[in-house]
Amino acid sequence: MNICLINPSLFSSSKLSPNIGDHIISRASHRELKKIFGNDVKINEIASHSFLDFNGIKLLKKSDLNIVGGSNLLWFRMFPPASWPIGPIELINYSDLVLMGVGWGAYDIKAGFYSKFVANKILSSTYIHSLRDDYTTEICKNNLDLNNSINTGCHTTWHLSESKIKYSKSKSDMCVFSLTDYDKSPKEDLELINHLSLLYEDNIILWPQGAGDLNYAKSLGYTGKYIEPNLDSYIQFLENTQSVDYIGTRLHAGILALEYGLNTLIIAIDNRAIEISKDINLPILNRNHITHLKDSILNGFEINLKFNKDAISTWKNQF
Question: How far is Cα 130 from Cα 316, in angstroms, rounded to an integer?
Fold first, then answer.
């Protein structure tokens, strides 16, 4: 089995995404595809952030199945190109693509005629598409005519549906936190740091998931410790650190923290965490309610995740 994975962790054939959250998504894509097709499956990758090159076209032609692996890719515009650029070459060479845990871009992006045209041109009409949340599912069915789509939740969370993790309700001794360089709110973000400093004293540590996160934190006056900005360092920290909570604006840093059993509170800054929370009870606090952070932590973490296991199985079993 040859699979071509359209991967948001690639900016081009030679450049990785500077947002390590994309690599967490890619990690989940490979994990779930291997669960379905076995460890011997051949997974070739195409960058979702750039136009197709000759090698990408070759990979598509020799592939048995083309999978779009998550992220906010399901929106399109002619000019300037969206985060997943689709031009004439893509419209010719992309066909029968199958979505896995893909979400809609943002609340303020409308699904117009061009989005509907592109979606129906490049996406499969026979395979079932896996969507990240109910908000995306409603857009797909009502605006894009993608009736062969279901809400499975983000595939980065599917592994959690199989786990027996028991989360502690009480505050831990240490906190790993995150900020988001491309969606800054200095007043609330500084208040986040100040609350964490009061509650955890010197035992807070930043994980800069994005390329500019560390500099942004420093601009707010943060001079504390940080984990090296790469996925291996973050996983090593999660594996080897006892009694630690995760609190921050980076969604996938929080989902990975849940995977390793950490008390987690994601500070929601956009549609992704908000809509996922509606579906699976992802623990969130809206950033414009950051004044409630202290009470949220001291009152105890409430993590009661739920999953649409039937939808996940339906998507997986179609193959």
Answer: 9
Successive 10-residue mean pLDDT values, the chain, 319 residues: 96 90 98 97 96 96 96 89 93 97 94 94 97 97 96 97 91 97 97 97 97 98 97 97 96 98 97 97 97 93 95 98
Q: Which residue, among 202, 195, 6, has the nearest Cα to 93 in the 3D structure?
A: 6
Q: Are 301 and 283 in contact (CB under 8 A)?
A: yes
Q: For residue range 7-52, list pLDDT tens digits in order.
A: 999 988 789 999 999 999 999 999 999 999 999 999 999 999 999 9
Helix (H, G, I), strand (E, B) or coil at 67: strand
Beta bridge partners of 67: 5, 98
If one counts every other C-beta atom within 10 angstroms of the C-beta of residue 38, the result is: 9
Give, as one character, the DSSP assignment of residue 131: E
Question: What's the chain's Rg over C-alpha atoms?
Answer: 20
Side-chain half-sphere exposure of 243, counting CA atoms within 13 A: 7
What b/e readout covers 272-292, taking b as 16+ CB neighbours within 10 angstroms?
bbbbbbebbebbbbebeebee
- Can you tell me the distance from the alpha carbon of 150 to that of 90, in angstroms, rounded to the nearest whole number? 25
Which of 138, 73, 61, 64 minimizes the C-alpha distance to 100? 73
DSSP, collapsed to helix, strand or coil, labels residue 45 as strand
- Strands, sheet with 129-131, edge to edge from the N-terminal-most edge strand: 42-47, 2-7, 65-71, 98-102, 129-131, 149-151
Estimate to the nearest angstrom the gap between the alpha carbon of 40 and the chain centroid. Answer: 26
pTM above 0.85, yes or no: yes
pLDDT, tens digit, 9 for 90 and up, residues 167-185:
999 999 999 999 999 999 9
pLDDT digits (tens, 9 = 90+) for 290-300: 999 999 999 99
- CB half-sphere exposure, 121, CA atoms < 13 A: 16
Rounded to whole angstroms, the Cα distance separating 286 from 266 reads 8
Contact status, residue 244 vs residue 227, Cβ threshold 8 Å: no
